[in-house]
Amino acid sequence: MRFTSLIVELIRARPRLVVWLVVLFQAALWLIIPLMLYRSPPGDLATVLAYGREYQVGTDLGPPLAFWLADIAFRLAGNHVFGVYLLAQLCGVAMFWTLYQLARAIVGGQQAVLAVLLTMTVAAFSWPSLEFGPAVLARPLWALLLLHSWQLIGQNRRNAWFAWSIDAGLLLLTISAAPVLLLLVAGFAVTTARGRRTLQSFDPLFALLVVAVLALPYLIWVIRADALALPPWPALSDLSGRALHWGILLGGLVLAISGIVLLMLLNSGWFARNPEEAPIIYRPPVDPLAREFVYFFAIAPALAGSLIAGVFNFDGVAGGAGVALLMSGLAAIVATGDLVQLRRQRLLRSVWAAAILAPALAALAATVFLPWTGNGEVATSLPAKAIANFFGDSFERRTNRPLKAVTGDAQLAALISLDTARPHLLFATAPERTPWLDFAKFNETGGIVVWRASDTVGTPPPEIAQRFPGLVPEVPRAFEQLVTGRQPLLRIGWAIVRPKVP
C-alpha cells in the first residue's frame, strides 16, 4: 500500500500554504535567535547603521539604498536594532515568495514548493541573514527582476515593463554589481528569438528612462567622486594567484549548494527497493525557453560574479552569494523531470530540517561554548547598549552636551554610534571613508575617543596619540560579555575631546 505523508498532501493541495509556513518559520527562528543570544549587532551591521545615519548619496561601500533603509528601520523600532533584524527577514520572505511565483510560472505550483524548499538549504539562505546590507537587500530585488524578465520574455506581458524598470533602478541603488546583472538579462533577451521580439517596441526605452531617473542621484555622485573607473587590472605575475582565488570562490559556491546535492542524491532511485510506491509530484511540460532561462540564470551570475571577484581580488563573489545561487533550487527541479518521486520521505525531512536548524545551533554553540574553549572574542556577545549608554552619558555629564561624534577603535566606535544621540562615526585610521566628518570638525564639536586598553592606566595606542596630541586618557572602563568563560573582561580606554566654546 502506498504511503503518502501529510506534508506531501499539503504540497499537492495547498502549495502556497506550505511556502508560507516554512518561510515564516525560518524568519521567526532568526528573529528569536538574536533576541536570545546577541547583545551587539553581528558583522558590520553597526557600521551600516552609522553610514545610513548620514544619508549620503554614495560612499565607498557602494550605492546608498540599503543604508537608508537600515536607518529607517532602526528609527522606526525606537533606535533598536530589532527593526533591522526584522527588515532582513522581510527581505528573505519577499525573496522566497517571489521565487515561488517565478517557479510556479515555469514548473507549476507543486514543484515550485520543492524549488523553494531546496533553495532554503543553500548556505547563503540557511545561515543567518541578520547582517542586513546591500547583499541582503539585493536578493528580493534580483528575484523580482527575474520574475518580471520572464513575464516579459516568456509570457509576453507588456504591462510588466514598469515593474521591471523599478526593479532595475532599485537594484542599481543597492549593489555595485547591478550593471553586470542587467547585462546578463539583456544578453539573454538578445540571444533568444522571443527576447528580441520583446525588445522591438518603445516600452524598453520608457523603462530605461525610469531606470535612469531612479539611479540618477547615485550616478551623479559616482561621476563627481571619479568612481567610474574599474579597479586596477592584475599584473601578469599576479594572474596565477587571482586564478586560484577565483577557483576558491567558485568552489565555495559549489559547497554552498551541497544541501541540494545531498537531497537530490538521497531522493534518487539508485538504491530504491520499491520505486513504484513513492508519491509523485507532477508538473506540466516545461517550455524549452523557460528551461534555458532557468539554467542560464542559475549558472551565469555565479560564473560572472566569481570571475569578477577573482580578477579584481574581491573578498566575496560580486553581487553576493545569495544573488549568484538564487536559481539553484529551481534549476535542480527543472533538471529532475516532469515527475518528481519523493523517496525516503522521513530521511529527506530530517536532512532538510537539519540544514535549516544547524545554523541556529551553530550560533548557539558559538555564543555559549566558544568563550570556554578559546581566547577568541564572540563579537555578538559585546554589551553594545551598555557601552553606548556609558560613553554617551559620560560625555553629556562632563560637557552638558549630547555626544556628537566618536572615533578610535572602529568596532567599538561603531557600537557607540548606536547611542540614543546617534553620534557621527569617524574612522581614525581611514578618515576618507567618513567624508561627513574630519578631525578638524571633530575637534570643534568634541567627542569620545575609544580604544582597547592594554593596561590599567589606559594609555592610548600610538596612532591615536599621534592623531590627538595632548589627549588625556580617563580610567579604563571594563564591561562583562554575555558569556565570559576563559576570556578577560572587555577593557576600553577612552578620552574626551571637549567641544570648543564659540
Automatic annotation (TrEMBL):
<dbReference type="Pfam" id="PF13231">
    <property type="entry name" value="PMT_2"/>
</dbReference>
<keyword id="KW-0808">Transferase</keyword>
<dbReference type="GO" id="GO:0005886">
    <property type="term" value="C:plasma membrane"/>
</dbReference>
<dbReference type="GO" id="GO:0016763">
    <property type="term" value="F:pentosyltransferase activity"/>
</dbReference>
<keyword id="KW-1003">Cell membrane</keyword>
<feature type="transmembrane region" description="Helical">
    <location>
        <begin position="112"/>
        <end position="130"/>
    </location>
</feature>
<feature type="transmembrane region" description="Helical">
    <location>
        <begin position="318"/>
        <end position="340"/>
    </location>
</feature>
<feature type="domain" description="Glycosyltransferase RgtA/B/C/D-like">
    <location>
        <begin position="63"/>
        <end position="221"/>
    </location>
</feature>
<protein>
    <submittedName>
        <fullName>Dolichyl-phosphate-mannose-protein mannosyltransferase</fullName>
    </submittedName>
</protein>
<feature type="transmembrane region" description="Helical">
    <location>
        <begin position="352"/>
        <end position="372"/>
    </location>
</feature>
<feature type="transmembrane region" description="Helical">
    <location>
        <begin position="293"/>
        <end position="312"/>
    </location>
</feature>
<dbReference type="InterPro" id="IPR050297">
    <property type="entry name" value="LipidA_mod_glycosyltrf_83"/>
</dbReference>
<feature type="transmembrane region" description="Helical">
    <location>
        <begin position="82"/>
        <end position="100"/>
    </location>
</feature>
<keyword id="KW-0812">Transmembrane</keyword>
<dbReference type="InterPro" id="IPR038731">
    <property type="entry name" value="RgtA/B/C-like"/>
</dbReference>
<feature type="transmembrane region" description="Helical">
    <location>
        <begin position="205"/>
        <end position="223"/>
    </location>
</feature>
<dbReference type="GO" id="GO:0009103">
    <property type="term" value="P:lipopolysaccharide biosynthetic process"/>
</dbReference>
<feature type="transmembrane region" description="Helical">
    <location>
        <begin position="168"/>
        <end position="193"/>
    </location>
</feature>
<feature type="transmembrane region" description="Helical">
    <location>
        <begin position="17"/>
        <end position="38"/>
    </location>
</feature>
<keyword id="KW-0328">Glycosyltransferase</keyword>
<keyword id="KW-0472">Membrane</keyword>
<feature type="transmembrane region" description="Helical">
    <location>
        <begin position="243"/>
        <end position="272"/>
    </location>
</feature>
<keyword id="KW-1133">Transmembrane helix</keyword>
